Amino acid sequence: MKISKLFSLSVAILAITSNINTSQAQSLSMGIRGGANYSKLLGIDSSEFKTGIVGGITLNYQTAGKWSFSTDILYTQRGTTFQRNFADSLVDQTEKFEYDYSMNYVEIPVLFHYNFLSDSSKLKARAFFGPSLNVRVNAKNNIKYTKVVNFGDSSVTTNTEGEQDLAYIYTPLDYGFVGGIGATYAVTDKISASFDIRASYGLLDIREYLSESSKAVRNANINILIGVTYRLSK
Questions:
Q1: CB of 108 within 8 A of CB of 72?
Q2: CB contact at 8 A, 158 and 97
Q3: Which residues contact 22 (CB under 8 A, 6 or more apart)?
Q4: How many C-beta atoms surround the C-beta of residue 140 within 10 A?
Q5: How many folded domains does the chain comprise?
């Protein structure tokens, strides 16, 4: 399914659901959320999780039942780190390349929440899922190169650093699936605090130039988020 169709379908479902039985709707809330992001690129050998930050605004619609719906606009620091080592026994030397990918995105998830506790409870546990459209803001690779040449009892070490633009290697758009668990606590009648743990998996192979000789590359992320929302209406 194309990105535009996937996201349009999700928005349509959200809009239709929010218009059903509006007389019984509980509330519409708006707020902010932020936290830590742990990301890697699946398909790159030895790819390791990289820590970044995530934050933005959220809009939440709570129905009279156990379902609620939300959409966010989040700025997320993604990427990964990995290294490649090479050895040449003929000249007794080793080479190490250290790669640090910084790939930052604006994420727009549309999430469907199921609340396990009753409406009268101040603390609500929930599970959620939904699609996410992600637009890349920038992408670069900070490279560190180390070469060690051995001469008997002595050695010579060479260190070099550089930067590579990844904009033409990976696609500017990505989409994926988000799922997780969370809790919301009603601080007052108008203000609520939330805590979420989210995992997202990229459904798109983000390589700009596809090749059967290399693996598909997909985004994978774990978010730990806290937030505050203000109820705009009943």
A1: yes
A2: no
A3: none
A4: 16
A5: 1
Name, in order, each residue with C-beta under 8 angstroms of 139's C-beta and a sequence gap of 6 or more. Answer: 101, 102, 103, 104, 165, 166, 167, 169, 170
Question: Is residue 158 assigned to a domain?
Answer: no
pLDDT digit string, tens, across residues 55-71: 999 999 988 778 899 99
**Pair 126, 117: CB distance under 8 Å:** no
Residue 89: per-residue pLDDT: 73
From CA 18, how far away is CA 68, in angstroms rounded? Answer: 9
Q: Is residue 206 part of a domain?
A: yes
Residues of the domain holding 30:
3-80+106-139+176-233
**What is the CATH number for 222?**
2.40.160.20
Tell me what pLDDT residue 21 has: 43
Average pLDDT score, the chain: 87
CA 23 to chain centre: 35
**Residue 144 belongs to some domain of the structure:** no
168 in a structural domain:
no
